[in-house]
Amino acid sequence: MVSTTLTTLAVGLAGGLITGISPCILPILPLVLAVSGAPGEERSRARPWLIIAGLVTSFTAVTLFATTALNALHLPGDLVWKVGLGLLVLVGLGMIFPKVQELLEWPFLKLPKAGGLQAKVRDKGGFLVGLALGVVFVPCAGPVLAAISVAGATGHVDAHILVLCLSFAVGVAVPLLIFALGGEQIGRRVSFFQSHQRGVRLTSGFLVIAMAGAIATGAPAWLQQKLPSLSQPEVQAASASSGAVPEFAGLTGWFNTDTPVDPRTNGKVTLIDFWAYACINCQRNNVHIAKLYDTYKDYGLEVVGIHAPEYPFERESSNVRRAAAEQSIAYPVAQDNDFATWRAFGNQYWPAHYLVDAQGQLRGSHAGEGDYAETEHQIRSLLQERDPQVRLPTPVESTEAAVGAADRNPETYLGTDRARYFDNPAAEYVDGTHSFTAVTPRQGRYALGGEWTLAGQPITAGRDATVDLAYHAAWVQVVVAGRGTITVSDGDTTQEIPVTEDGTIDLLRGDAAREGTLHLAVTPGVELFSFTFG
To answer: Are 303 and 273 in contact (CB under 8 A)?
Structure first.
């Protein structure tokens, strides 16, 4: 099963290709050309391929070692991610400004140079030559290696990291293989490459910085989340409600259990629940899932929460653990940050659950909230099928438990990628910093006032930033990031809410749905992602 992601391949291959075509390959080109042209026609044909195989092996080993050393430090995941993005930007700046690259390469200058190794490896086997090239190439590839190692770190050396290392090594190897196969003919064109190296450096630098920007704004994750719908025919069998349950893939950060859970072999009835902790639909759903687990866990039911992040801050394991405790989740949870298990199931929704019988066969599925009584009925049937002698407790769900979507606003995204319910002029609601004139929103919509910086996912408050939200709900939340305050007024009362951590904040919570308008005054720097309603 392939458990790689678009992000892994994009970062690895792009980083490797940019390194492989950058001007820093010039010092080792004489070595590549020399060893590729060894005597003997048969040997010459195979030798370049053996050299590149050795290079890929060497690069992969170096990167795995670097990643293992990094993970041994047990740094917070969001800090590691931010440092990786910063390194990628520095690498891009180094390609644009030679002085910056000199500073980045300084720690690697003590490593072996191409000239010293050339005589030693000229007559050796091609594979050994490739291993040596992997060491020779570190002085110029070192900063990029460090950057992708940090940016791609997941906390474990797993299939994700291995694919990242291999894709980077292959990206580096492709241009060098072309040089090796071309031999002297390409060697005669190196002078042309040297004369145009400034343009190559600039282009490569801007590409690296653009790649860092795409990762920072969540573009690969957005595409990744859309991927199942593009490949639906391929995964339809896995997402159906019958057949063998797909194998879990790429899961990390298990908690509430001593060992990972495998629904194919655990011998229990298993409910697999896909969720994201800042999703209000998931929060409401989790109340019922937790109730079912607490009721039936002693009768053969297992629940596994697969946490697939919708926002960048939901990737951090400490945030997921904190949210699970706040939402009274006692069943096993694992993080699916790369959406590998999400894709294996052909899933497309938060929340969604899949029911597996004691023999590891899929027996039912449900997307979204509601139908809790039906889910409980299916669980009870599978438990009785597992053990006909079991005496089950009284059902805890009723047909009235589902929440009607007509009683509340739809989930309202604020970033430009998915914004629909704004009452500001459409020509102004685009990426960038804008000063909005406050208007009274229509029912079910919102309007910005003051200065806001709009981006694909979040909008960031500036001077005198306000939001007016016309709601119909009993429960109103906002998904936030950053630090500051939000002052909320409903016309009768005013409260100041501190923003001290990334996640969801209750703006209003009552027993019954009602209509009204909330006025939010947001301090500069606070990011808003979406409004959710219950």
So the answer is: yes
Strand partners, 527: 460, 481
For 378-422, the DSSP string reads HHHHHHHHH-TT--PPPP---GGGSPPGGGSPPPEE-STTT--SB
140, 175 Cβ separation under 8 angstroms: no
- The H or E element that residue 481 is part of is strand 465-481
User: Can you name the residues that pair with 335 across neighbouring β-strands?
Assistant: 252, 307
Indicate the burial class of 327 (C-beta count within 10 angstroms; 0-12, 13-18, 19 or more): middle
- For the residues 57-85, what does the mean pLDDT come to? 61
Distance CA 409, CA 471 (A): 6
What does the pLDDT look like over 288-329, one tens digit per residue?
Answer: 999 999 999 999 999 999 999 887 788 888 899 999 998 999
The domain ranges of the chain are 6-217, 227-403, 412-533
Segment holding 326, helix H or strand E: helix 317-326
Tokens of 10: 């994009």
Q: Which residues are bridge partners to 422 per DSSP? A: 446
- Taking the domain 227-403, which CATH number applies? 3.40.30.10
Question: CA nearest 33: which of 139, 132, 174, 176?
Answer: 176
Mean pLDDT of 401-410: 58
User: What does the alpha-carbon distance between residue 106 and residue 95 come to, in Å, rounded to a whole number?
Assistant: 15
Distance CA 454, CA 477 (A): 20
Regarding beta strands 484-489 and 301-307, do their DSSP bridges make them parallel or antiparallel, or are they unpaired?
Answer: unpaired
Lowest average pLDDT, out of 27-31, 445-449, 496-500, goes to 27-31
Please, are residues 179 and 186 in contact by the beta-carbon 8 Å criterion?
A: yes
- Percentage of the residues of the chain whose pLDDT score is greater than 70: 58
Tokens, residue 304: 């596994």
- Residue 300: which of 270, 324, 268, 329 has the closest Cα? 268
Burial of 55 from C-beta contacts in 10 A (0-12 / 13-18 / 19+): buried
- CA-based nearest residue to 55, from 224, 216, 175: 175
| Spatial separation of the C-alpha atoms in residues 113 and 222, rounded to whole Å | 42
CB 246 within 8 A of CB 276: no
Which pLDDT score is estimated for 44?
Answer: 53
Residue 528 pLDDT greater than 80, yes or no: yes
Does residue 472 contact residue 407 with C-beta atoms inside 8 Å?
A: yes
Residues 306, 248: Cα–Cα separation, whole Å:
10
Q: Determine the 3-state secondary structure of 472 from DSSP.
A: strand
Asked if pLDDT for residue 469 goes beyond 70, the answer is yes
Alpha-carbon distances, residue 483 vs 128, 480, 503 (angstroms): 54, 9, 11
Q: What is the CATH number of domain 412-533?
A: 2.60.120.260
Q: Which of 505, 385, 525, 396 is nearest to 462 (CA)?
A: 525
In degrees rounded to 5, what are phi and psi of residue 321?
A: -65, -45
Q: Which two tokens stand for residue 94?
A: 């180094």
Given a contact cutoff of 8 angstroms between Cβ atoms, the answer to whether 322 and 505 are in contact is: no
